[in-house]
Amino acid sequence: GAVVSQHPSRVICKSGTSVKIECRSLDFQATTMFWYRQFPKQSLMLMATSNEGSKATYEQGVEKDKFLINHASLTLSTLTVTSAHPEDSSFYICSARAPDRGNSPLHFGNGTRLTVT
Amino acid sequence: GESVGLHLPTLSVQEGDNSIINCAYSNSASDYFIWYKQESGKGPQFIIDIRSNMDKRQGQRVTVLLNKTVKHLSLQIAATQPGDSAVYFCAEPTIYNQGGKLIFGQGTELSVKP
């Protein structure tokens, strides 16, 4: 079945530094991927839609200059948290759906736990 | 606006019992719903989905019921096992059949007692 992989699974960084998170579709090509954020004991909130070959679409309230998204190939999207602060500490999860699978549900990566100290 | 929410944040059941997790939605035009299971430290895992032209759909040990009159759906897990312990989310696409921007409910944490 479709598999989405994220790397790293955990990362700790110092305040002010940048962190890059990778999301890969392993057995299918994804022209569109989605980035979600999840705070402890809360639900997933969509941050942005990553579009291969074009600019990402950000949800209201999400700073595009802080959360840089690059979707340079059909199997890879990256999310870079720039100038990270402790309040950016969260669980970041990407998702994708194989384009030839009709209404098949989204497949999610296993998330990246970001801790900013 | 659109919203998908859950009635109970936590549910504790005895192993072997059946579990019922509820979800309410507000948009009467919603036509597709998905249930996800999220284990600790992992991403959501697809369980089962249902379209609005159905009232019930069954999978392996799981059943989803949809009541469009009261805008409510439920996930029933039969013979609950310790491995079922997780947070369960109902979700609804904001754009159907276009790649899946999802709105998630708040989640219900299911705890199975041995």
Explained architecture:
The complex is a heterodimer of chains A (117) and B (114). Helix content of chain A is 0%, strand content 50%. Chain A is an all-beta fold and 117 residues long. In chain A, strands 2, 4, 5, 6, 9, 10 and 11 form a 7-stranded mixed β-sheet that branches. Chain A is globular, with a radius of gyration of 13 Å. In chain B, strand 6 (56-58) and strand 7 (62-67) form a beta hairpin. Chain B is built from no helices and 11 strands. With 114 residues, chain B is mostly beta strands. The termini of chain B are far apart. Chain B is globular. The mean pLDDT of chain B is 88.
Describe this protein with a few key phrases.
heterodimer; A: 117 residues; seven-stranded mixed sheet; 0% helix; B: 114 residues; mainly beta
Q: Would you spell out the secondary-structure blueprint of this structure?
A:
The complex is a heterodimer of chains A (117) and B (114).
Chain A: E1 4-7, E2 10-13, E3 19-25, E4 32-38, E5 44-51, E6 57-58, E7 67-73, E8 76-81, E9 90-96, E10 107-108, E11 112-116
Parallel strand pairs in A: 2-11
Antiparallel strand pairs in A: 1-3, 3-8, 4-5, 4-9, 5-6, 7-8, 9-10, 9-11
Chain B: E1 4-5, E2 10-14, E3 19-25, E4 32-38, E5 45-51, E6 56-58, E7 62-67, E8 72-77, E9 86-93, E10 102-104, E11 108-113
Parallel strand pairs in B: 2-11
Antiparallel strand pairs in B: 1-3, 3-8, 4-5, 4-9, 6-7, 7-8, 9-10, 9-11
The percent range for helix content of chain A is under 10%
Mean pLDDT of chain B: 88
Query: Percentage of helical residues of chain B?
Result: under 10%
**The biggest beta sheet of chain A, please?**
7 strands, mixed
What is the 3D shape of chain B?
globular
Q: Strand tally of chain B, please?
A: 11
Give the C-alpha Rg of chain A: 13 Å
Distance between the termini of chain B: 41 Å
Derived from helix and strand composition plus strand pairing, the structural class of chain B reads: mainly beta
Q: Per DSSP, what share of the residues of chain A sits in E-state strands of 2 or more residues?
A: over 45%
Oligomer: heterodimer
Indicate the overall shape of chain A: globular
Question: Runs of chain B with pLDDT <50, length 5+?
Answer: none
Largest sheet of chain B: 6 strands, mixed
The most extensive interface, with participating residues per chain, is: A-B, 23 and 22 residues
Structural class of chain A: mainly beta
Tell how many strands the DSSP assignment of chain A holds: 11
